[in-house]
Amino acid sequence: MEQNNDQSADPGQPAVSRAIAANVRAARTARGWSLEALAARGGLSKGALVGVEQGRGNPGVLTLARIADALGLPLTGLVDGAPAPLVEVLPAAGGTRLWRGEHGGHGDLLIGSDPPVSAELWRWTLAPGDAHVSAPHGAGVRELLTVLAGVLTLDVAGTRVDVPADACARFAADRPHTYRNDGTSAVRFVGVVLLPGRPDPATSPTRPTG
Known about the structure:
The longest helix has 16 residues, at 15-30. The strands form 2 sheets. A 6-stranded antiparallel sheet has the order 1-2-3-10-5-8. A 4-stranded antiparallel sheet has the order 4-9-6-7, with no helix packed on it. The protein is an alpha+beta fold. It is built from 5 helices and 10 strands. Helices cover 22% and strands 30% of the residues. It folds into 2 domains: 12-80, lambda repressor-like DNA-binding domains (434 Repressor (Amino-terminal Domain)), CATH 1.10.260; 96-195, Jelly Rolls, CATH 2.60.120. Helix 2 (35-42) packs across helix 4 (61-71). It has helices at residues 15-30, 35-42, 46-53, 61-71, 76-79; strands at residues 96-100, 106-113, 118-126, 131-134, 142-149, 151-156, 159-164, 168-172, 177-180, 187-195. The model is unreliable at 1-12 and 201-210 (pLDDT under 50). The chain starts with 14 loop residues before the first helix and ends in a 15-residue tail after the last strand.
């Protein structure tokens, strides 16, 4: 039986943290999973998951991606505060900032689609010297991007390419990958993360954790 670790998010926390906490807890309990079960499936510590469900701190993109993958949800399924309407228009200042670079860059999750066709639309700005290092996403995840300004250095599993303004790239994101700005001006690009259809974890057999 779970003890007091499974608490509601602090109402004083930012709205995004409260939404993430509520969505993760709701998705986990809907599947009948304990904190330990979700932590094992996501490759996380129970303490980290408790912090997310209580709305504490600012979980990174990798932590949220692992939770979303374990639950079979897109990242937007964790950060959205309400179900999407039939038609949704995102204002210019919309989106959720999930990454901040050491030199002033940022990554915003703008909008996403729900299963069975799951995709996430991201907007990135990398200041000179910024780098976003990502561990492999789930099996079969692919990314598409187009560079709006500057030259993006993209490293996928040790293969490095420079993507200039107005060029596009696609790559297998189930391998380690890095976005980097080695130039002297800001790099701006838009990316789409494509998630393959997965069985609903709520009805799928439990995966081995050993």
